[in-house]
Amino acid sequence: MNDPIVDCIIVGGGPAGLTAALYLARFRRSTIVIDDRQSRASLIPIVRNLAGFESGINGNELLAKMRRQIECYDVPVVEGRVTTIREIDGRFFVQYCSNIGSSFRNLVAHRALLACGIRDKLPPINEAVRLTQRGLLRFCAICDGFEAQGKRIAMLGPASRALSHALFFRTFCQQVAVIASDIDVLTQQERALAAQNSIDLIPTGALELPDNTEAPVSVACQNGRRHVFDAVYPVLGCFPQAELLSGFDVQRDSDGMIVTDKHQRTSVNGLYAAGDAVNSLNQICVAVGEAAMASMAIHRSLPANPL
Q: Where in this chain does the record put each FAD/NAD(P)-binding domain (predicted)?
């Protein structure tokens, strides 16, 4: 193993990982980013609630801008998937598989930052990723609910969870429905709440997805009735992309999210985490803020690096 030991290895090249790389580079800390190009941000057609982008910005375009920014500081961004992280005597040994080839490589760092994000559970339909990029499937009412005003929207998932999301979405539009296979589990109180808010309860049927960007999503119900929506929000849950932590004693909550303190430190000394794999409010601005906090903590934890 001839690679030099760096100050920090960042796992993940989404908004959190790239922000941390920027901060650490400006602290004059040697840093490497390992990015599997699976950032959740890459699926966003347009981000409109990110300050400074008055016309919004495409998720991939945002990531490209962030990558170009850290290129100015000569931060290496390696395309690959991290398979294991081990901590031995205060150093972190990271093994990854290159996206270009199948060979495994190893890196060593004094600190490691997990910015590996989460992955949404997609409905069992063809081309779900493409439909997400087109805005027909959406995952964040906080991000784009404002643009749903006057549109027909459905929440797809377990009935109680979908109803909770639908009630929140009534902030933005009047035509909201719940599509679920377990409508019958809703209590009388929940059904009354849905009725009071004019939320349709639809037993799951087949989703018929359009071939062009402008066409709506059609749902053929079990009773033969057909409903049409401008967008469907799957609320099937998500899971952290933290398979690399298997066998690694990092504290996680009941949902599998990484637990950190206010400085983004995990239960393992020298290991930090930021972004969607940590918090429940999955927002770019939150991930960026956590990355800044983590970077400052990492910098302060390392020996001074005077000129």
A: 7-291
Strand partners, 152: 175
Element (H, E) at 302: none
Task: Give the CATH number of the domain where residue 23 resides.
Answer: 3.50.50.60
131 and 227, same domain (yes or no)? yes
Q: What phi and psi values does residue 221 have, to the nearest 5 degrees?
A: -80, 170
Check if the beta carbon of residue 72 is closer than 8 Å to that of residue 116.
no
pLDDT 10s digits, 202-234: 987 666 666 655 567 877 776 677 888 999 999
278 neighbors 257 (Cβ within 8 angstroms):
yes
Q: Note the pLDDT tens digit of each residue in 126-181.
A: 778 888 888 888 999 999 999 999 999 999 999 999 999 999 999 999 999 999 98
In 3D space, the residue among 217, 216, 233 whose CA is nearest the CA of residue 154 turns out to be 233
**What's phi and psi for 228, nearest 5 deg?**
-120, 135
DSSP conformational letter for 304: P
Mean per-residue pLDDT over the chain, rounded: 90
Q: Is 254 exposed, middle or buried (0-12, 13-18, 19+ CB in 10 A)?
A: exposed
Q: Which of 253, 283, 255, 288 is nearest to 267 (CA)?
A: 253
CA distances from 222 to 126, 175, 218, 251 (A): 20, 21, 13, 44
Structural domain boundaries, residue 56: 6-119+237-301
* Predicted pLDDT of residue 212: 56
Q: What is the pLDDT of residues 81-100, one digit of tens each?
A: 999 899 999 999 999 998 66
Q: Are 232 and 128 in contact (CB under 8 A)?
A: no
Q: Which of 274, 246, 269 is nearest to 258 (CA)?
A: 274
Q: Which one-letter amino acid corresponds to residue 37?
A: R
| Residue 25 pLDDT exceeds 70 | yes
